[in-house]
Amino acid sequence: MAVHLPLNRFEGTLEVGLHQDGRRLTPQRRIVLDLFQRIGTGTHLSAEDVHHQLLDAGTRVSLATIYRTLRLLVEMGFLHELELSEGGHRFELASHDHPDHHHLVCVRCGRTEEFESEEVLKAGLNAAECIGFKLIESTLNVRALCPSCQAN
Length: 152
Ligand SMILES: [Zn+2]
Ligand SMILES: [Zn+2]
Hints:
The protein has one domain: Orthogonal Bundle (Arc Repressor Mutant, subunit A), CATH 1.10.10.10. Helices cover 41% and strands 15% of the residues. The protein is built from six helices and five strands. It has helices at residues 14-21, 27-39, 47-56, 63-75, 118-130, 147-151, and strands spanning 79-83, 89-93, 102-106, 112-115, 141-144. The strands form two sheets. It has a three-stranded mixed sheet, with no helix packed on it. The protein is globular, with a radius of gyration of 17 Å. Mean pLDDT is 82; it is low at 1-17. Bound molecules: zinc ion (2 copies). One zinc ion binds at residues 44, 92, 101, 103, 114.
């Protein structure tokens, strides 16, 4: 049975956002968003990853500009930001097809795997309702060591 969350943070963001905010996308912002749309959902890139990929594709944009662009795309609802415990930030495409999910993050190499858990969603919803908070999202980031880092 699906958990019905009171507020779907993806509702109206991607499609409506593209329609309404698309005009506000400068060519540079469009290039960054295009990169995420090309690689699809489920890929988590750091600002440095985006920088390297754009350089490889022949687009010269400063890392500072990429940071600003990523923040803006998060505010506009195109991207979802993941705050990792080591202070690193990753970004992924926000999508209706790819709703609330959780992350297992290797603290050594940064490998990030996704998983789904209705229990986590329910726990977040219950906790919020108990104290009168309105839920926006429940996501869990699990810090771990991946198999290859365990072997080293
Ligand atoms: Zn993810
Ligand atoms: Zn690892």
